[in-house]
């Protein structure tokens, strides 16, 4: 049977949606409308953004900024994945961990990443490490909560069956709990990756000197409006692509989920 995800009709509606969005953008940019508190007088057109993007592709600045942002994102994300999954498994299965670790984590969770920037600058002498810490904080809590939810959703009958067959504690984790929680963990990782990019841009705008976020902010200060949109679109594409890569890797790592309902 042919997979519907790869048929032309499956891509027709998304492509049409993107085309309508670009046409609407072009119409608003060309009209220079003033709608009360909203104005499109300074909004660059898609053609101007395309020209600015082509210039960036031919410039060595692209790899320079992109390299710094990728290192910061993936370093913070890797640390958040390790700690978030580890703590999530522990909190999800151990009552003492839920009682002692979850309350302070819940207090810290609502604090936005931008609020951590002054403290991270004071704690870490290197601005590079402080920006990695900001991406780490942004990704940690989505991964942690998704892991806890995944562990809580594992059928207790599967755990009881494994115990009755003589499974030890570590075998129970590796063969029942982790596979059962894996779909929720993958979802948390994908969300955490998107949050990483959001937090990175905030950190680079405030304390960075290189990176895609800094490039976007620098374009604003220099009034290169087309370059602002180029930076925004590049961040969106990188965030979407990296999250999709995580979901793809998750599907490959979970063969028992491929024939789902």
UniProtKB/TrEMBL annotation:
Residues 66-246 form the ABC transmembrane type-1 domain. It is found in: Cell membrane. One of its GO terms (biological process) is alkanesulfonate transmembrane transport. GO terms for cellular component: plasma membrane. It comes from the Bacteria. The chain crosses the membrane at residues 70-91, 107-125, 131-151, 172-205, 225-248. Keywords: Cell membrane, Membrane, Transmembrane, Transmembrane helix, Transport. Its main location: membrane. It is a multi-pass membrane protein. Belongs to the binding-protein-dependent transport system permease family. This is NitT/TauT family transport system permease protein.
